[in-house]
Amino acid sequence: MDKQPPIGRFAPSPTGPLHLGSLYTALAGFLQARSQQGRWLLRIDDLDTLRNIKGSADTILKTLESFGLHWDDEVYCQSRHIDVYNDIISDLQRNRLIYPCTCSRKKLTTSARKQAPPDIYPGICRNRQTPPDCPYALRIKTDNRIIAFRDELQGLIFHNIAEQDGDFIVQRKDRVIAYQFAVVIDDNLQHVNHIVRGFDLLDATPKQIYLQQLLGFTTPGYMHVPIIVDEQGYKLSKQTQATAVDLTAPHGVIFKLLVLLKQNPPIELQQASVTELLSWAIAHWHPLLLKNTHAVS
Q1: How many C-beta neighbours within 10 Å does residue 3 have?
Q2: What is the per-residue DSSP string for the chain?
Q3: Which of 23, 71, 96, 288 could form a disulfide with 42 if both were Cys (CB 3.0 to 4.6 A apart)?
Q4: First to last CA, the chain
Q5: What is the pLDDT of residues 38-54, one digit of tens each?
Q6: Within 13 A of 255's CA, how many CA atoms are on the CB side?
Q7: CA-to-CA distance for 5 and 294, rounded, in angstroms?
Q8: What's the alpha-carbon Rg for the chain, to the nearest Å?
Q9: β-pair partners for 155
Q10: pLDDT the model gives residue 4
Q11: What is the reported pLDDT for 112?
Q12: Model pTM above 0.85
């Protein structure tokens, strides 16, 4: 059977403008798709309404266009698919695969002192049969299966969901659908078959593969690229006050990102247009130069 062209995606949250780290990941995914005559989709992860900033989605779209990163199809917004997430949650509830959890962060911290390893949900509410009167989250029941997958840059990964994660949240107490749950459904709805994203999300992948298996979805291929870190070794992010990407000289930014992606662009392209740079990068894209790398600066 012929290998299907990749369908990739970039899924920023509308919580502010894109910074260099975000654009770096977007460029990697764009080049991976375009170098194999694939499609590159854009999704706005806007479920966490309290963190969304008005106008950010439009700013993100304009920034990507400024850097020549043109997406295929219409922009997909999570907020337009809440009914789909809720329907699947209802099916899981009927099959008793998820359960309500009232545990507070303080309670779990206290419980963790008595149990090992920490940071893994100890199953306090697992056998609860009826919804409580107070606010509650919904957790998915996990089992001892081993999740194994080969990341194209980070190699073969083995992960025991029950032992290393425990039952994890699929809907928060404020009724917001959890990232782990939404992203799996979104990727399935968009027919995404290849995911390029930052190394910092590698630990989330086994949970998502577990949900894919539980829901009968196809598991895409994964490529976790190194993240950009600052002088102190912290990931560039909105939380670390990473500045918005410079829109005044997009060709210079693209050249810099190609260097960070270890693509070794020739020096004579340093003053080339964005279109010329991207054409060269698509033709010469070699992601394995990033193999086993976790961070760049």
Answers
A1: 7
A2: -PPPPPEEEE---SSS--BHHHHHHHHHHHHHHHTTT-EEEEEE----TTT--TTHHHHHHHHHHHTT-PPSSSPEEGGGGHHHHHHHHHHHHHTT-EEEE---HHHHHHHHTTSSSTTS---TTTT--S--SS--EEEE---SPEEEEEETTTEEEEEEHHHHT-S-EEE-TTSPBPHHHHHHHHHHHTT--EEEEEGGGGGGHHHHHHHHHHHTPPPPEEEEEPEEB-TTSPBPSTTTTPPBPP-S-HHHHHHHHHHHTT----GGGTT--HHHHHHHHHHH--GGGGTT--EE-
A3: 71
A4: 40
A5: 999 999 999 999 999 99
A6: 15
A7: 27
A8: 20
A9: 151
A10: 85
A11: 52
A12: yes
Q: Using a CB cutoff of 8 Å and minimum separation of 24, what contacts does 201-209 make?
A: 202/151, 202/154, 202/157, 204/179, 204/180, 205/149, 205/151, 205/157, 206/147, 206/149, 206/157, 206/159, 206/161, 206/164, 206/165, 207/161, 207/165, 207/168, 207/180, 208/180, 208/183, 208/184, 209/147, 209/149
Which residue's entry shows tokens 């930052």? 198
For residue 2, the model assigns a pLDDT of 56
pLDDT digits (tens, 9 = 90+) for 93-112: 999 999 999 998 777 776 55
Pair 178, 204: CB distance under 8 Å: no
Pick from 104, 96, 169: nearest CA to 129:
96
The owner of tokens 């005044």 is 248
CA dihedral 243, 249, 255, 259 (to 10 degrees): -30
What are 122-132's pLDDT values in tens digits? 889 998 877 88
Q: Which residue from 102, 87, 169 is spatially nearest to 133, judged by alpha carbons?
A: 102
Q: Cβ(238)–Cβ(15) under 8 Å?
A: yes
How high is the pLDDT of residue 278?
98
| CB count in 10 Å sphere of residue 123 | 18
Contact 37, 4 (CB under 8 A): no
